[in-house]
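Customer escalation, tier 2.

The customer says the design service returned an amino acid string that "doesn't look like it belongs to this structure." They asked us to rerun it and document both sides in this ticket. The original structure tokens are below, unchanged.
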């Protein structure tokens, strides 16, 4: 995968993710409708590759305005990943030399690997995750399950223990997937299924779309670095 192809794929996936995020605000307050309506227009231009460098720069400025409007990344990790992808893409499109473009895009890929690894490392050192109690508490007490019927999972401790360990091991071992193209593709497919499950079980739909947008950077980097 060439750098230009990976950048274009990331632009398309990010634009689709941003359109989904923007749709959530089009029925909100007037200032939100204006901000996210403009964001949707810019994303439509990006989808068709119209003046992409300038559109990306406008999206960065709009992203700063959104941060000011909500006093930070109000949606947590998905908003942070959105800004990371946007900034790395913008840098890769505007930096004058090819190797600097590659550094900017490789930074995105590196951050994606770190995100998965750190997420697993944080979980695996906690006794409640190793015992399965953390997932039980999520299903039993949190507001995340998308339906009350899903709370029945809290009564299946062995299943949740196995699910917890599967997630932790996958995340901490994720960097090893870089050593093989086939393994990386399988790992990214598994990660996508993980995010899809989180969207279905906990309503975390933003994570699914925006994390997919970062995958082309890792596919490009693996091909660029591992011969």
């Amino acid at each position: 995968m060439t750098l230009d192809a990976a950048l274009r794929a990331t632009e398309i996936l990010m634009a689709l993710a941003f359109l989904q995020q923007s749709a959530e605000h089009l029925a909100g307050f007037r200032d939100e409708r204006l901000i996210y309506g403009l964001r949707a227009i810019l994303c439509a231009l990006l989808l068709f590759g119209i003046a992409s460098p300038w559109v990306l720069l406008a999206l960065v400025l709009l992203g700063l305005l959104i941060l000011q409007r909500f006093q930070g990344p109000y949606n947590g990790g998905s908003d942070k990943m959105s800004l990371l992808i946007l900034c790395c893409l913008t840098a890769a499109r505007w930096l004058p030399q090819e190797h600097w473009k590659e550094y900017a895009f490789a930074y995105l890929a590196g951050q994606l690997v770190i995100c998965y690894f750190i997420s697993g490392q944080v979980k695996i050192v906690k006794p409640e995750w190793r015992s399965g109690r953390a997932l039980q508490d999520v299903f039993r007490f949190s507001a995340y399950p998308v339906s009350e019927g899903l709370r029945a999972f809290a009564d299946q401790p062995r299943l949740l223990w196995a699910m917890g360990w599967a997630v932790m091991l996958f995340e901490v071992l994720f960097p090893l997937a870089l050593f093989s193209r086939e393994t990386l593709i399988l790992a990214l497919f598994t990660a996508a299924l993980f995010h899809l499950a989180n969207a279905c079980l906990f309503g975390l739909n933003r994570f699914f779309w925006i994390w997919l947008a970062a995958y082309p950077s890792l596919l490009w980097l693996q091909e660029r670095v591992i011969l």
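Tier 2 assessment: The sequence is consistent with the input. Residues 63 and 108 are 17 Å apart (CA to CA). DSSP finds ten helices and no strands in the chain. Sent an explanation to the customer and offered a walkthrough call.
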